[in-house]
Design goal:
single chain; alpha/beta
């Protein structure tokens, strides 16, 4: 491979959330070790693509970091990327930039709902969906996904019944889906839209993981199903640039767009930093081969974790990973709650993973989420640590 994803980059001691944050059981003396392997929060332990490093370095050498105008070359990079990569023709006027996808989500909910209305999600769901909805005075309405072999599917009967609720005005989708790893098909997305349209429910799609697609699967932007939607996107997850704070809201509907733009200013997330601007252009214009190699490496990591768990921890069941770098694992056979399992692994294995209940109190119980976006040697070290704790001492 052209790029070295096996390199062990030392992140501890850099004020890094993933490596320097306190863990879930700080009061336990066993949790104070600095030997923790974090497989929790969704960022990667890989260096960014060389073109991004160079763009940021060049901008830093200028030495002045005041307020920025977002140039036309920025919009051109976004438009060209999605046309080339995903066959989606985005118009320049549809694009609104902001600092990150979570603030974007909050702005869109503020703009398109009224307090007291219901926002529908497919559960389990990314934990910030819950907080963003509640923080804007709306009610979370969950449509539980159905387990299907080693994956999940939409319960369209339940989904339509929830859309038919007169208080439901917005459907917030995660595409690809975090945490189950589903990459929704065009047929599924079309059916979601048809139901929403029939009941007057607006569709908002969080597509931050859209470049993280495993071999054999294809990402479909919701914007290629219909223009009657809002899409939120960023290179941050795929290109590991979350700290550079840049994202886009894509909306063809002029009235919605004006309201969203107003909400961006009300929430005061209308200014972006100079490094995010140049990093996005370097990612979309010069780093396509890097993302292709990254996906191949992540696929290898997924195969490794699936094979290891099948052979050494057979009481765990790894769900099929179609997209993202966040395998969803069924641990219900352990006989304890997901949170209890994660606390034990943190204290005894020195491995930090997320309990499924972060993503839905009921739909996430019995599952954990792992982050496999790290060098394979580190991932295998973590798995071996988990195995030594889980197997000799069944949790009953």
């Amino acid at each position: 491979m052209k790029y070295d994803f096996d390199e062990l980059v030392e992140r501890r001691g850099t004020n890094c959330v993933k490596w320097d944050e306190e863990g879930p059981c700080q009061t336990d003396d066993r949790c104070s070790s600095k030997e923790m392997i974090p497989l929790w929060v969704a960022d990667m332990d890989f260096k960014v693509a060389p073109a991004i490093q160079e763009a940021v370095r060049k901008r830093a050498e200028h030495g002045v970091f005041g307020y920025n105008i977002v140039p036309e070359s920025y919009y051109e990079a976004v438009i060209a990327w999605f046309r080339r990569r995903h066959q989606w023709d985005i118009h320049r006027e549809w694009l609104l930039y902001t600092t990150a996808v979570v603030p974007a989500m909050s702005c869109v909910i503020k703009a398109l709902t009224m307090p007291g209305e219901k926002v529908l999600i497919l559960s389990p769901a990314y934990n910030c969906f819950f907080s963003s909805i509640k923080n804007n005075g709306c009610e979370v309405l969950e449509s539980p996904l159905k387990a299907a072999d080693d994956s999940f599917e939409v319960d369209f009967i339940d989904f339509e019944s929830k859309c038919a609720d007169e208080k439901t005005t917005l459907f917030l989708l995660c595409n690809p889906h975090n945490p189950t790893g589903r990459v929704w098909t065009r047929e599924e997305l079309q059916r979601m839209y048809d139901i929403c349209h029939r009941h007057g429910v607006k569709v908002v799609s969080d597509e931050i993981h859209c470049e993280l697609i495993m071999p054999g699967y294809r990402f479909v932007p919701f914007g290629t199903v219909t223009d009657d939607c809002v899409v939120m996107n960023s290179p941050s997850k795929s290109f590991n640039t979350a700290g550079l704070q840049i994202a886009n809201i894509i909306c063809s509907h002029p009235t919605w767009r004006r309201r969203i733009d107003r909400a961006i200013n009300i929430n005061e997330v209308c200014d972006v930093n100079p490094f995010g601007i140049v990093a996005l252009q370097a990612a979309y214009n010069e780093s396509e081969d890097w993302i292709d190699e990254l996906n191949q490496y992540l696929w290898g990591n997924y195969q490794s974790i699936r094979d290891f768990i099948e052979e050494n921890i057979p009481q765990w069941k790894v769900c099929r990973l179609e997209g993202t770098y966040l395998p969803w694992v069924d641990v219900s056979a352990m006989g304890i709650t997901s949170q209890q399992l994660c606390n034990r692994l943190f204290a005894e294995a020195k491995v930090w993973i997320n309990p499924g209940t972060m993503y839905g109190r009921e739909t996430g119980e019995g599952y954990v989420r792992l982050n496999i976006a790290c060098p394979r040697s580190r991932l295998m070290d973590a798995l071996q640590r988990i195995e030594t704790v889980v197997n000799p001492c069944p949790f009953t």
